Amino acid sequence: MSSHALYTSLLRPPVLHILRAAGFHATKPAVLDTLVDLAARYITLLASRAAAHAQESHNDHGLTITDVRMALQDVGALWPQKSAMEEHIMGGEDLRGVEAFVEWMKGDEHREIRRIAGLIDSEAAVPGVDIPTEKEDFLTALKKKHNKTGEISRFQGTALGTDADDKPIRIEGGPIETIQDWSARITKSSQEGPTPSSGRPSSVLTSAMSSPLSDI
How far apart are CA 14 and CA 47, in angstroms? Predict the structure, then answer.
């Protein structure tokens, strides 16, 4: 399975949960595929804009809350919002868009989505629905459900788990034992440059130069 197909499959359950929380009880596969594609494009746009702001602001890809806020502003998720020039002229930061976005996310219309995502406490849950005391998102609960051993470590090093620890790769049959040593030697050789020649002509060229023209 390609990475695109894998991430598309992982995005299907959240979209289905959002539809269920919005009150839909069924949908056609073509409609679901369209919504998943739209969600993927929107997330990709947000991520690319946030990465661009991070690169411009502090020259690295470590995202901050400011980078995410500016990305949300770029895609029109924060409204109403004054431009940076208008904020500079007024001498203050316009937080109306951020406050409206937070209020919209914490409103009653997203209560069911927050419940499914595990973002609300058990005492604030929907009546008649059992929710564990510990906050747990649906993906973690799904992995525990389908993992009979109960070990989350089986997903380590995959798209569903944490990154695996780097292990050294041994090279057999030579003085260099690891990839790191080989890379260091190649880097050192490239920095030193090619070995200068002794200036002596080759044996073929010497014999050709010493031979009469009639013999050539």
Answer: 18
Question: Which has more confidence, 6 or 16?
Answer: 16
Q: Quick one: 192 exposed, middle or buried, by C-beta within 10 A (0-12, 13-18, 19+)?
A: exposed
Dig out the tokens for 83 from the structure: 């431009």
Least confident of 13-27, 47-61, 118-132, 165-179: 118-132
pTM, full prediction: 0.60
Tell me how far CA of residue 201 lies from CA of 204, 208, 210, 212, in angstroms.
8, 11, 12, 18
CA–CA dist 203, 75 (Å, integer): 71
Contact of 143 with 160, CB cutoff 8 Å? yes
**Around Cβ 73, how many Cβ atoms within 10 Å?**
19
- Cα distances (angstroms) measured from residue 85 to each of 46, 55, 88, 94: 23, 21, 5, 11
| Residue whose entry in the numeric block shows the structure tokens 């009979």 | 148
Q: How confident is the model at residue 91 (pLDDT cuts 50, 70, 90)?
A: confident
Beta bridge partners of 170: 178
Lowest-confidence region among 67-71, 73-77, 125-129: 125-129
Q: How far apart are CA 78 and CA 66, in angstroms?
A: 13
